[in-house]
Design brief:
Belongs to the RNA methyltransferase TrmD family. The chain has helices at residues 10-18, 20-27, 64-78, 95-101, 119-124, 141-152, 161-173, 194-197, 201-219, and strands at 2-6, 32-36, 50-51, 61-62, 82-92, 106-111, 116-117, 128-131, 186-187, 190-191. The chain is α/β, with parallel strands linked by helices. The chain folds into two domains: 2-152, Alpha/beta knot; 167-219, tRNA(m1g37)methyltransferase, domain 2 (Trp Operon Repressor, Chain A, Orthogonal Bundle), CATH 1.10.1270. Bound molecules: adenine.
């Protein structure tokens, strides 16, 4: 999968893309990331990318020309992308959406800053507009990393088979994860639950499912 992130702060995104699961995916050749600063597509010598809103009001609006020129240049080079715009006005991001996005060969993630995008950016091209939650961040950079990580970790070969299979079952059942334990067996007087030590795989599976259901009922009854 080829992921292109369009941002005014590419240097803020670079270290995270090299770390942990995202770094492993690119080392394995499963994912490739390109960071593009759309300020490079500004048409004036001050490298302007934003301007004051028509109709007045606070903040600045991202101009259409640099962003559209940048996207069109990328698509001439690589072919078309599934285009994603990160804004608080988008559809809520979910595990199911992450799974759907794994179907695309090329993703383009547009990170906004300031008050928002000139509406003609939305009109001129087709965008999948995504919000990572009902709160407002200073820009789309963290949301773009959230989406990238949620999608890339699902690509075949990125995680161990065992982990992904286990997660799938919870995911499809709409349940929160069950509690986990590792050594020591007793920590500050707290013991690891007996079923996990029994060696009886059916009993372990039953215990985990019961725990996951109880936890989901208490914490997230909406699921
Ligand atoms: N940009 C600013 N806030 C955001 C959010 N909650 N989701 C996606 N993009 C954003």
């Amino acid at each position: 999968m080829h992921v292109v992130l369009l941002s005014l702060f590419p240097e803020a995104l670079a270290p995270y893309l090299r770390s942990s699961i995202l770094g492993i995916a690119s080392e394995k050749g499963i994912a490739r990331y390109d960071l593009v600063d759309f300020r490079d597509f500004s048409r004036d010598r001050h490298r302007t990318v934003d301007d004051r809103p028509f109709g007045g009001g606070p903040g600045m609006v991202l101009k259409p020309e640099p962003i559209l020129d940048c996207v069109e240049w990328l698509e001439r080079r690589h072919g078309s992308f599934h285009r994603i715009m990160l804004t608080p006005c988008g559809q809520p991001f979910t595990q199911e959406r992450a799974g759907d996005l794994t179907e695309h060969e090329r993703l383009l993630l547009l990170c906004g800053r300031y008050e928002g995008f000139d509406e003609r950016i939305r009109e001129e091209l087709e965008w999948d507009e995504i919000s990572i939650g009902d709160y407002v961040l200073a820009g789309g950079e963290l949301p773009a990393l959230v989406v990238t990580e949620a999608v890339v970790r699902l690509l075949p070969g990125v995680l161990g088979d065992e982990r992904s299979a286990q997660e799938e079952s919870f995911q499809t059942a709409g349940l929160l994860d069950h509690p986990h334990y590792t050594r020591p067996r007793v920590f500050r007087g707290r013991e690891v639950p007996a079923p996990l030590l029994s060696g009886d795989h059916a009993a372990i599976a039953r215990w985990r499912e019961t725990q996951a259901r109880a936890r989901t009922r208490v914490r997230r009854p909406d699921l």
